[in-house]
């Protein structure tokens, strides 16, 4: 059975509240889970102690059983010091989009044409 440690959404519309759960990866996001491991409230301040609460011992148990944390939960575990930090790369983060590249090419072509006319 493929196990995951992930977030299950609760709360009303525009007021999210998440439970950190251990579940079978084939279950729906808010569906059946095996154990609730903690909570995450994104509406609280980032420095608030109540923003993320986890039962670290149970999380370590599930990691020992082969459960894979999702990206967001892995970040929580890294911040808590349970797992080592992994290096993430977003190679396209600083790269402009297609439209911006097209505009830059047109601008460069106009500047080159203007420089040619000025040099004659």
Textual characterization of the structure:
- This protein is of the alpha+beta class.
- It has a domain at 3-80: Ribosomal protein S16 (S16 Ribosomal Protein, Chain: A, 2-Layer Sandwich), CATH 3.30.1320.
- It has three helices and five strands; from the N terminus they run ββββαβαα.
- Strands 4-3-2-1-5 form a five-stranded mixed sheet.
- The longest helix has 22 residues, at 98-119.
- The chain is elongated, with a radius of gyration of 23 Å.
- The N and C termini lie far apart (74 Å).
- GO terms for molecular function: structural constituent of ribosome.
- Residues 85-108 have a biased composition (Basic and acidic residues).
Topology:
Elements: E1 3-10, E2 17-24, E3 35-40, E4 52-54, H1 56-64, E5 68-69, H2 71-80, H3 98-119
Briefly summarize what is shown.
The chain is of the alpha+beta class and 120 residues long. The chain has helices at residues 56-64, 71-80, 98-119; strands at 3-10, 17-24, 35-40, 52-54, 68-69. The model has no long low-confidence stretch (mean pLDDT 90).
Structural classification: alpha+beta
Compute the average pLDDT.
90
Global Rg? 23 Å
Largest sheet: 5 strands, mixed
CATH architecture designation of the domain at 3-80: 2-Layer Sandwich
- Give the ordered list of helices and strands: EEEEHEHH
Region (Disordered): 84-120
GO cellular component, one term: small ribosomal subunit
Biased composition (Basic and acidic residues): 85-108
Family: Belongs to the bacterial ribosomal protein bS16 family.
């Amino acid at each position: 059975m493929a196990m995951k440690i992930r977030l299950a959404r609760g709360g009303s519309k525009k007021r999210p509240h998440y439970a950190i759960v251990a579940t079978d990866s084939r279950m729906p996001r808010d569906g059946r889970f095996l154990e609730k491991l903690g909570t995450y409230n994104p509406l609280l301040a980032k420095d608030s102690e109540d923003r993320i609460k986890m039962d670290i011992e149970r999380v370590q148990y599930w990691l020992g059983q082969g459960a894979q944390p999702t990206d967001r939960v892995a970040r929580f575990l890294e911040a808590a010091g349970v797992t080592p930090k992994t290096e993430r790369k977003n190679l396209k983060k600083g790269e402009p989009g297609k439209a911006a590249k097209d505009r830059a090419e047109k601008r460069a072509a106009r500047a080159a044409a203007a420089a040619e006319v000025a040099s004659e």
